Amino acid sequence: MAIDKPSTPAFSPTFRIGGDLTVNRLGFGAMRVTGPGIWGPPRDAVEAKLLLRRAVSLGVNLIDTADSYGPEISEQLIAEALHPYPPDLVIATKGGFTRPAPGRWDPDGRPWHLKQACEGSLRRLRLERIDLYQLHTPDARVAFEDSVGALVELRAAGKIRHVGLSNVSLAQLKQARAIVPIASVQNLYNLSDRSSEGVLAACERDGLGFIPWYPLGAGSIMKRRTLARIAARHRATPAQVALAWLLQHSPVTLPIPGTGSITHLEENMGALELVLSADDVRSLDGD
User: Does residue 175 belong to any structural domain of this protein?
Assistant: First the structure.
């Protein structure tokens, strides 16, 4: 669909992760370049690599992945498609889940596992240092400070540049920040699920990047009537409006919509051209 062109931007198009990595705020989540169920290789590896290259050609310079996507497949495809990397490309990856079988996501926050996971990501991504390495999830069997401490050691060893967290509470964010500078938080957040609003507010207050995963709610939010009405008025798609809302809702949000389709990728990137009115934002805020 056509999009009403703005005369001036309604939001800053870039953000500085950790104060020194400038990224365009609409990134790409590379979970779905893998096989069905985020397991195994994609049906068409050539198409998956074309998708990654197209994302970069459209201006994406923040790609988010994890060792558990595939497992390992997403990171391998990123390297095969994009290495040697453009100088401004930031690849964020994560460790802390294991995938013993399809449909299984088992937390493993043991320090030795996180160190091994990081080493594996470095090899697959063909990097000497990962710009943003994130603890994928807290592990109830492991003291949270011990998991964070492993990332502190990796940072001190020059293996990672910045430490990020994922799937954490406000209390865990505060606990981690007492141990090491935190550059970003990646939590579930979209129009339908705003349970991490308090974490987002803390990130906004202190200038941390907030990476909302499932920014489109796996398509479920597309059925909202308010979203459809606003999309029709702007001659945009509901997905574009949902992403534009995330970009305008807070200056620290870094949405990473993921897809296995170049068509959907191009549609999602159209959100950057969409300016919602203050009334639109208020309506969506209260929806």
Answer: yes
Q: Is the pTM of this model over 0.85?
A: yes
pLDDT at 10: 63
Total structural domains within the chain = 1
- Which residue range(s) make up the domain with 203? 14-224+250-260
DSSP label at 10? S
Active centre residues (catalytic): 69
Check if the beta carbon of residue 120 is closer than 8 Å to that of residue 112. no
CATH number at residue 152: 3.20.20.100
- Residue 101's pLDDT is what? 94
Q: For the range 46-50, what are the long-range contacts, defined as Cβ-Cβ under 8 Å and sequence gap of 24 or more?
A: 47/260, 47/262, 48/77, 48/81, 48/260, 49/77, 49/80, 49/81, 50/81, 50/262
To the nearest whole number, what is the mean pLDDT of the chain? 94
Q: Cα(179)–Cα(147) distance, rounded to whole angstroms?
A: 11
How far is C-alpha 91 from the geometric centre of its chain's CA atoms?
10
Domain contains 237: no
| Rg, the chain, Cα only | 18
Which residue reads 């459209």 in tokens? Answer: 58
pLDDT digits (tens, 9 = 90+) for 231-247: 999 999 999 999 999 99
Contact 52, 81 (CB under 8 A): yes
Q: Is residue 285 part of a domain?
A: no
pLDDT tens string 187-222: 999 999 999 999 999 999 999 999 999 999 866 677
